[in-house]
Amino acid sequence: MSLKQIASELGLSLTTVSRALNGYPEVARGTRDAVLAAAQRLRYEPDLRARGLALGRSDAVGLVFPITPGDLGDALFLAVAAALSARLAEAGLDLLIVSTTAGDEVAAYRRAIRGRRIGAFVVPRTRVHDLRLELLQEQGVPFVAYGRSAGLVAPYAWLDFDNALGARLATRRLLALGHRRIAYLGAPAEYNFAALRFAGFGEELARDGQRVAPTLVLRQALDRRSGYAAMQQLLALARPPSAVLVDNHLAGVGAVHAALQAGLRLGQDLSIVVYDGLGMDSVIRSAITAVEQPEPERTGQLLAELTLARLGGTPPERLQQLHAPALVPGDSDGPLPPRARTQGGAAAA
After folding, report:
1. All domains of the chain, ordered by start, with CATH?
2. CB–CB of 185/251 below 8 Å?
3. Is the pTM of this model over 0.90?
4. Is the pLDDT of residue 16 over 90?
5. Which of 134, 174, 262, 304 allows an S-S link to 87, with CB 3.0 to 4.6 Å?
């Protein structure tokens, strides 16, 4: 069954039938209902590629992601992607996840753009200086950034969380508990979220009259293995920290396991706060004190709505959302142990 046959039966133009099937608001409700009923009765199945070409748009949203074993085990990312995909499907769009290697992301975007199958992109893990976003702007391809980029000047659509605020909340809590040797274990500085969280950490220390101790800062951990190794390094110091802020949940899993394997009692021997917690699939029995953001399902829906609005022609400067995180207390942090007080709790190494 074709559009022409539906149009012939109802005495409508091809354009009207096409617009009714695609939910254009200018089509009268009665006409749209009649077209949808006829399409269902006649078992009409649209050719998505042909429809996209006819309407001057593609029927897929792309998400280019460097797949590693750590990413495949990231339940939070998968939950966001699932919710994003579900909402796009309701609008008749597919979510295409394009796998690539970490060093080939920009080339993967170029290939995807040339293929003309993808009409818009959702760009995760934004960088401070992001060549992917610059490319998409140069090519005039709609996109929504999952995070911001300090280096991008022209307006663009984005969804982000107040990363600096989240880090300040966590640091403030640890300071209030009496900790002064607070370590920072985080993702590489190239990621915009990591840059903002580290800045918030330093700002809150400065407000308390403290300074960041270089020996207590490790910023190369964005998976379980590197988080585990970084925590081991911190615990091996002659004067280990009494508290640790971990700026991402993947490294947080490894960091917590390293502390437990060392025989430390969380919240007593060592306090830990993990940004985003340990994820939905954690087997750790203790409740981890965490900086939490909206549920991943909600985040996926928000990304989808922004993407649909961008595809609909809404200017990017009107599609910018910043949400506040919240600190959720758990059992993994507590007052500075008495023996640590007697050793002196200066923030500097």
Report:
1. 3-46 (1.10.260.40), 60-160+295-323 (3.40.50.2300), 163-293+328-342 (3.40.50.2300)
2. yes
3. no
4. no
5. 304
